[in-house]
Design goal:
The structure is a homodimer.
Chain A lengths: L5 H4 L2 H6 L38 H4 E7 L16 E7 L1 E11 L10 E7 L2 E3 L4 E2 L5 E9 L2 E7 L6 E4 L5 E9 L6 E12 L12 H18 L7 H19 L5 H5 L9 H7 L1 E13 L8 E6 H7 L7 H15 L4 E7 L5 E4 L8 H7 L7 E2 L10 H15 L7 E7 L4 H17 L5 E5 L12 H6 L1 H5 L5 E5 H4 L6 H6 L8 E5 L17 H14 L3 E4 L29 E2 L11 E2 L1 H23 L1 H10 L3 E3 L2 E2 L4 H14 L2
Parallel strand pairs in A: 2-12, 13-14, 13-21, 16-17, 17-18, 18-19, 19-20, 20-21
Antiparallel strand pairs in A: 1-3, 3-10, 4-9, 4-11, 5-6, 5-11, 7-8, 7-10, 11-12, 14-15, 22-23, 24-25
Helix pairs in contact in A: 4-5, 17-18, 18-19, 18-20
Chain lengths: 657, 657
């Protein structure tokens, strides 16, 4: 045996460190009973657990988690503590309730079901935040194993199933209306172990029993059915016979509990909740700041019209198609997002439009003047077919829109990431056309490099920085990929130095496939603060708008409830911020991702930072980011939630009137 | 900007390789519609899917996987192919059916339910393997995210739920009885999308409806109840009135389907299955080899009696306690395992016993002479309290047992991994006592090093190898940890060289915390072939027995259905090969892990290899392992299933009569 092997093959110090496990007291960490289950007494016994008699605290762990936590199925329990939240008016603040069974109390293959009931939140002056209107519950469903989809819980039957050895999470959102009086609102969430519907199967009438009942009722009716009776004796016999049949039916085991109970057995009564429910106390401070209805920073997000057409089997231009687009538009507005529909042509030509109706349609005005919309894309129709009709129609659109007050929100998005001089020329040609209709049109161009084939600059970064020189006056919104910056925040000044704000030029940014971890982005599997930090980054770098390419760009499918597949070659979650509701239930309502909620939170954070800066100056705002440890740079931001609440609390304390 | 940054911050070749994604045709792998859903036509439409009219193939992916595959929730679909299996008589052969929804057809929060129905397997000569007796279905349930627990599927309602974006697996086992005639058995498994019980909620009678029905039946009975009638008219009126009530009851919407159907609506009719089910064809070759009822290699596995006492709230020595132990003993026998119950004392003293009853109890003879039991542990009672009574009782036990034919299977397991001279002395003292009762007692001692504090040998490995010199004649079964060998198979000869087979000395091995990946062991998260290879290793190294410390050594709990926690400090799954059934359903039957099934498969492989070697010699047996690529060494064995079937097929071809 070689000397070098003695360590790996046997004994000595190495060995006693990795001594095999033992069960006895001598075994230290491996010894039996090391972790105590923490069960109250031994009241549960060895039989089937009667959840109505046992405190839910003995059946499951309940604890709260912040909205930036990715609560995985393996998440370990923590102590249950009161949840204290802060929110402005017109703000949504969310947190999560994590649930993990300690034991199984169901007999149908799951650990058990829990009912989650929330009280209204009430202030001492009698104001309320009402459950289901202002308080919503959603189940956090894993996508590719990562907690992401937020599937609404039916308010009429607010139950979820728990599985053995798995932590589940419920996403609780509090939506504070614009007119909500400031104050401290308090309420409770009752979490109660219940029987599942499958467990109570024996209590409901199975099909075979219903057939029996049906047959007996029919035969009873045959007996009593009016006819010509031969004698009173026959009638007595018939009545007796019917009575016998009826008594047999009443003896049906499935009806036995009906005679004992008052008929309201399904309702959970307040006493029961007080006695057996886990109670999560919740307090929300609503303060006297109202988030502006129109987001301070326009964030324009794409919705693929082709994906909607395919998945929902809708023909372009039909009533159903308009309804579907309308539904998506309205639904996305709640996230402080300005949606645009889009369709890609060849060579990254793009047709982007916020409103599917023409400018002279009443819906167009409704869309464009919606105060929640911070920016809107005007369709450049000739991008699809460059006919005279298309050009005329475009001219008419601009004519109508440019006279409206909302025209300042309008932009054209013509080309996604032009790469060469030929594509730059196309943009310039279109720009010339558009500016002939209205000299103040705003054209948005996304890019991450300079045009290839030009001698713009000696280095690729310089070529990128000099793009405004090439696209002026054909682009007003220079929208660059955060990926180009990498972790070099200092490069921002090089980009901005090339812009002419005096000509109305703006710098916007975007993320998509890049940047990747550890920088902020919205890919599945990134940390929650990493998702939220995309908007922190935007605010710190000083861009005045943001673009995201797609919110519903999953793989092609021709059925609403088809499995959601991410597109090949893209990081999971890229281009997908919500899911079709049909995949998870019979609902047609889109299902938000946790990432979309974190985008909303980031957009709200921007309003806090803007408020603070408006009082104390931008330098102080930047200092606040730094001193709370919330965001210092693209690779230096908080991984935990704490600093987020510290920042928000500081803005509250220093800006409340 | 520094030169070193130019690559990360911008442009050039690097950049075009990681160009952001696009939706158009130009986007290559990221382009829209790249992966086609593979749906048959567009028959599904945009509405709620009627699963009875749509072929299940359009609703879900079905494919088979070998028993050594860990089918995760993210497992990607494969084509469905016929399953061809080979099994001897008295053998269990298993495979898995993987299922993944293509769409959601349920409306209750899951993608949908599937029914899995298996036909009997029939041979052309009319012999059968009968469903539920010889063919069983179990759901593969993740433990810590790893597919491991095999929860039986109710044969009366063989349904499982599928979740959006998740692959589920069903473990199918074919148990070939000893007397099964050899031949080719064929059958089919029908996988059919069905409504869930929750979906059909409206079809069953909800509680409120049952109350209504109950009240109406009662009032109808009040009408017909025999009494003194004043007149025939009253009777007519009563009959009429009863009829009216009965007709109203028959109009109850919940009973409407009863009049249309034949009363067998719950049964899936063969036509339906033929038309809409996915059919998995299954063929099993049963060959004319019968695995010996008594395993050729004794594999002794511990069951913690303390864990059973705690979890099932049983007092030591009560009737329930004996029942529980008996239940565990019988259940484990099916895995070609020889169980022993155990309890640890101080300093790794161990009380190990196979039968909880004394030797003069009828049950003792039943246990010890069970042909499936290859070895049994005789309790050395004085290990707990060294009283005269204990010593006398022990002497009586040995007196009785040594006269029985099964005495050759007996062994004493006194101490787990003695570490120092003092502990060695204890073993020698006990041995002296035992040998005074019967000179041919066999004592098993586990160890992974030589005694500390002795001058046995200059190196730790040599001290380990020389242990037999210290323990002779006080140990006959020298049971060493595979961890000591590491990947050095050649060290086996050093161990074996020290043994005296002429004195009945044997070499056994064990695994526990070590060895770790990539060597074979039974930890959760290892590959399936890695689990199965533990027994391949034993056979190749030539040990004549095997020991495993614990099968049920999860963390302490005082409730049968309490969450299963692995003990701290142990690799997940170590010491836990099955789970309490109560965690997953109302069943009291233990739930096997996939690892336990793979242990059985490995034990069965040993019988194949032994048969082959008995015909062609051990060298040829070793050559078979090598040429099939199944097992070459502790870090060189197949990761895929293929070679396992090749080895088995080769044994079949060359050994069938």
């Amino acid at each position: 045996m070689e000397p070098g092997d003695s360590n790996s093959a046997a004994g000595g110090k190495t060995q006693s460190a990795s001594a095999p496990p033992v069960e006895g007291v001598a075994g230290g960490g491996t010894s039996y009973g090391w972790v105590d289950g923490g069960l109250r007494g031994t009241s549960l016994g060895a039989g089937v657990i009667d959840h109505t008699k046992v405190h839910s605290e003995d059946l499951l762990h309940v604890w709260s988690m912040p909205s930036t936590a990715n609560v995985s199925q393996q998440e370990a329990p923590r102590p249950l503590e009161k949840v204290n939240l802060l929110a402005a008016r017109n703000e949504r603040e969310s947190f999560q309730i994590a649930l993990r069974p300690k034991v199984s109390w169901s007999t149908s293959g799951i650990a058990g079901s829990v009912q989650i009931q929330c009280t209204d939140l009430c202030s001492s002056s009698g104001d309320r935040l009402v459950v289901d209107q202002s308080i919503t519950l959603r189940r956090v469903v894993p996508i590719l194993g990562v907690p992401d989809a937020l599937v609404p819980i039916d308010p009429l039957s607010p139950q979820i199933s728990l599985y053995p050895g798995e932590t589940a999470a419920v996403w609780v959102s509090l939506n504070v209306p614009c007119g909500q009086p400031p104050g401290l609102y308090e309420g409770e969430i009752f979490i109660t172990a219940v029987k599942t519907e499958l467990d109570s199967r024996t209590e409901s009438l199975p099909k075979s029993e219903r057939y029996r009942l049906y047959r007996e009722l029919r035969s009873c009716l045959d007996i009593t059915e009016p006819r010509d009776y031969s004698s009173p004796e026959e009638m007595v016999q018939r009545l007796t016979s019917a009575s016998t049949t009826l008594r047999r039916m009443l003896d049906n085991p499935a009806l036995q509990d009906c005679q004992e109970s008052n008929g309201f057995g399904d309702m959970m009564d307040e006493d029961v909740m007080n006695n057996v429910s886990v109670r999560l106390k919740l307090s929300l401070t609503v303060w006297d700041f109202t988030l502006p209805v129109t987001p301070s920073l326009p964030a324009v997000f794409g919705i693929s019209e082709t994906v909607i057409e395919d998945r929902f089997c809708l023909e372009h231009g039909t009533e159903g198609w308009y309804d579907a687009l309308d539904h998506h538009f309205r639904w996305l507005l709640q996230f402080r997002i300005s949606p645009f529909f889009c369709r890609w042509g060849d060579s990254m030509r793009i047709l982007a439009y916020t409103c599917p109706w023409p400018a002279d349609h009443p819906k167009a005005n409704e869309y464009y003047s919606d105060p929640r919309l911070a920016a809107y894309a005007v369709p450049y129709a000739p991008i699809l077919s460059c006919t005279d009709a298309a050009k005329n129609s475009l001219r008419r659109e601009v004519e109508i829109l440019k006279s409206k007050p909302h025209w300042s929100k309008a932009y054209f998005y013509l080309w996604d990431e032009p790469l060469n001089v030929e594509q730059y020329d196309m943009i310039c040609n279109i720009s010339n056309e558009l500016r002939s209709y209205s000299p103040d049109v705003r054209i948005l161009t996304t890019y991450y490099c300079g045009p290839s084939g030009s001698e713009l600059a000696p280095s690729t970064f310089e070529a990128f920085v000099k793009v405004p020189n090439v696209l002026r006056p054909h682009t007003q919104i220079f929208c660059t990929s955060e990926w180009v910056l990498g972790t070099r925040e200092d490069l921002v000044k090089d980009i901005v130095a090339e812009l002419r704000p005096d000509l109305g030029e703006e710098w916007w940014t975007y993320v998509c496939m890049g940047p990747s971890d550890p920088q902020p982005n919205w890919h599945l599997g990134m940390r929650g603060t990493q998702h939220r930090a995309v908007m922190w980054r935007v605010w710190k770098e000083g861009g005045t708008g943001f673009l995201y390419w797609g919110t519903n760009c999953y793989e092609k499918a021709m059925i609403p409830s088809a499995e959601i597949c991410f597109r090949r070659g893209l990081p999971p979650g890229d281009g997908v911020l919500f899911y079709p509701g049909e995949v998870f239930s019979s609902s047609h309502e889109p299902v938000a991702s946790t990432r979309l909620e974190r985008i909303l939170s980031g957009m709200q954070d921007i309003e806090y930072l803007k408020l603070y800066s408006s009082r104390y100056g931008r330098e102080e705002g930047l200092a606040l980011l730094e001193k709370t440890g919330m965001y210092l740079g693209p690779d230096r931001y908080t991984l935990d939630h704490g600093p987020v609440d510290v920042m928000r609390g500081e803005v509250y304390r220093s800006c409340r009137s």
